[in-house]
Amino acid sequence: MENPDWNHIRAFLATAETGSLSAAARQLGLTQPTLSRQVAALEAELGVLLFERLGRALALTKAGHELLSHSRKMGEAAHGLALAATGQAQSIEGTVRITASDVMSAHVLPPVLQQLRQRAPKLTIDVVAANDIRDLMRREADIAIRHVRPEQPELIARLVQEATGHFYAAKSYLNRRGRPASFAELGTHDFVGFGDTERMIGYLDPMGIPVTAENFRIGSNSGLVAWELVRQGFGITPMSDEVAAAAPEVERLLPGSDAITFPVWLTTHRELHTSRRIRLVFDLLAEFFAAR
């Protein structure tokens, strides 16, 4: 049996101490389904049942009680380690350049950048918002967040999240043009293009969405501009569920359809192992995405 994942133990500990999945999820800043999966994963790793449901409440099993005392000791040790690491991080100086898409830079990264500011106030962070893949080898950035795994052996890449997305359009657009009931019907609607139209068509066509260049009468190589055009009623586009959740004027299309999944890769040069500042930022980003 492999050693249990600390995130799974932390989920168990919070659930045991709060007595409910919803309260534990709030405490850890996770969604309830994510927390439930982490507790279930720990049970699978250990081969035991840790909780039993009594009505709407959760009760620890005998195995759960035995694990709780060990988990508390681990939690205290982790807290002490975090305090020590935070103390060291206070003195780290220098600049770290993070490159990510403009949409991710504007809509996803700010919360983790706030954490980074608190943990390492002397560190300078330069966010390079770019939709092309910046070359880490030429040091155009120190850390890249991308949806494609790099192939260069000199780079370190970690899969930190399997993000989800769906098709979205503004309610104003849908009220005017109607709500499509199938992927095939999407082909009769206007789309807003992100960058290369032919590439988008090549992505949509295998999904059973019969679009051509005629569907893409407006678009931008800027993801932020394209998303603003969607929000203002110009048409449909696929978008990260996390980004779309912050835009009440848009509506998810085809309820019940499978999510579009796309990986989030965190990449840096092998200097990660020798640079304290890059390692700090890399680890904090990895923790941030893994918890979402």
TrEMBL record:
SUPFAM superfamilies: Periplasmic binding protein-like II (SSF53850), Winged helix' DNA-binding domain (SSF46785). Residues 4-61 form the HTH lysR-type domain. Pfam families: HTH_1, LysR_substrate. Keywords: DNA-binding, Transcription, Transcription regulation. PANTHER family: HTH-TYPE TRANSCRIPTIONAL REGULATOR, TRANSCRIPTIONAL REGULATORY PROTEIN. Belongs to the LysR transcriptional regulatory family. This is LysR family transcriptional regulator.
